[in-house]
């Protein structure tokens, strides 16, 4: 079990997330909705919806979508961007829904955020109908982006606290085993990559600092040290290759059907 993530960074930096991160993660959000089978007649839950990117992608394909998150700030941005979608404040470990309510559950880059992943996954099993599916995206081995240098600088000045539980999901065999253990069957994993490039060093830096936990770490240092860190980050990015490649694992897990 991992420490419960503080929601304050997500509340405080939701707008920056939507502005800087969502555009680079859009391809993965669309793919998540497609793999979840989003279409007319499908009831889909977007778990840990954040700013609602995957929920919007699923709704655009015709699905009836409900998005949940425990961050009021993230939900505020999601509602502003898509007032037609039903967004609700809820914790993944205690979902406010009846059994067998959804045909599909999508979860984008959030399996690593749950303090009690087993409880959260069992809640997904509970709210899925027989034969329904969970589709979850996680980071995979093979990503590359120029802002790693920014992260290394930040690690030097401000050690990370309470790491996310990323390791189990990086390796498909470990993640699949975890899903089977809580009751899913027909678990499979597909690896896909998405590519792009930042326009300039400032855009790359803004992207790096838009991640809520990174922004929260930067806020912990005094103004002088912060300016020094940002100056070194800019220097590291100037002249660097600004292209990026994000590698994802897409986990597809089915709930046992009716006998």
Biggest pleated-sheet summary? 7 strands, mixed
Question: What is the level 1 CATH name of the domain at 20-141 and 163-198 and 246-255?
Answer: Alpha Beta
In CATH, the topology of the domain at 20-141 and 163-198 and 246-255 is named Rossmann fold
Structural category: alpha/beta
User: What is the CATH H-level superfamily of the domain at 20-141 and 163-198 and 246-255?
Assistant: Vaccinia Virus protein VP39
* β-sheet strand percentage: 15-25%
Residue-averaged pLDDT: 93
Evaluate the radius of gyration: 18 Å
Number of strands: 7
What do these coordinates show?
With 259 residues, this protein is of the alpha/beta class. The protein has a domain at 20-141 and 163-198 and 246-255: 3-Layer(aba) Sandwich (Rossmann fold). The chain is built from eleven helices and seven strands. It has a seven-stranded mixed sheet. The longest helix is centred in the N-terminal third of the chain and has 22 residues, at 14-35. The protein is globular, with a radius of gyration of 18 Å.
Write the layout of secondary structure elements.
Blueprint: H1 8-12, H2 14-35, E1 43-47, H3 53-60, E2 64-69, H4 72-81, E3 86-89, E4 102-108, H5 117-127, E5 128-139, H6 148-157, H7 167-170, H8 172-181, E6 184-197, H9 201-209, H10 212-219, H11 223-237, E7 243-255
Parallel strand pairs: 1-2, 1-4, 2-3, 4-5
Antiparallel strand pairs: 5-7, 6-7
